Amino acid sequence: MTPDALLVIFAGVFGLLVGSFSNVLIWRLPRRENIAFPPSHCPNCDHRLGVSDLVPVFSWLALGGKCRYCRAPINRRYPVVELLTGLGYATIAGLFPPLTVGWGALGLMLLFTLLLVSSAIDLDTYTIPDELTLPGVALALGFGFLNGRAGAEGLPDFAGAVNGALLGAGLLVAINQFGSWVLRRFRERLYPEFPIGYQQISLGLLAGAWLGPWWGAGVGLLSAGLNLALRRVIRVPEALTLGGLLLTLVLGSAGMGPGMILMVQGALAAAGAVSLVAGLYWWLQREPEAEEDSAHTTVDDRYDASAMGFGDVKLAAVIGAFLGWERLLVALVVAVFAGAILGLLQLALKRENRVKFGPYLAVGAVVALLWGQGWIEGYRTMLGL
User: According to its UniProt record, where is this protein located (predicted)?
Assistant: First the structure.
């Protein structure tokens, strides 16, 4: 048996163990429980589980899907998550051999776990915890550094991971900004956040189009600093920022400014940077007992229409950082089509589609991971690039 084949088997077994821990995260993170203490126990009778109760998949089968101590049913999701993780890790090890890809293979396995756990929590609670996404972005940047120069598998280096994270967050937040503006019928937000929030993100969009990503992000963060210094919110009208960006793109298409492509890239990257800083600030300032919507509930989310949850924005940053901006675009296209198809099916069945965008985005990311590079190369060949 070859070393690569042995690593595939090892990765599958390792994935089963990680899947067991993933179930702990899925249960405890939404409830703000410590993920290490107390040790694993039955959620119904609180009896501590023994080693024989914790063998991935086999314990569930041996116990007939019921707790050994109180005979309460054990959710079928437990073995499903373990099996999916084991299969996912083995597939990644087969397609991205660790002996060839190096640390990048382990990074992709981590991404798979983040996507699976985020989707399960989103389906249960309509939230994506910051405890997964924000550290996930940092870890992705670390793996980008370990990747060095991007190899044949198209995994990003550190610069590519930074660019993917910023463009991922920026693209989703731009969709949210304009979608929310339309939902509010182009009225201003009633309750802008202090000191940093959607107003600073919109300002970053406009400034980034003209000044580039870093100066654009600096303008957005300078606005937040001014709010802090004055201890009140200095309103930045969306008619100026979002309306100004639309005008900017019209001017860019006419040949003015840095050019359309650079303007779009600068706007999205700047908005993505401000979004991640805002997300980190909201996470650190969050009260332990506060209730959240999709990864974070702000005053704006409760009183002003929002097109999507902010957790989706940070999840897109994770995907972009791990896979790079090109595969991120593939993931987004697949997610949109998957969401549209399921939405039409539920409409035909007269069922309400309450699934958040996060699971669709996760499915798109897995598709992009497995087949995205081939699609990208095919597209380049078709265009003669």
Answer: Cell membrane
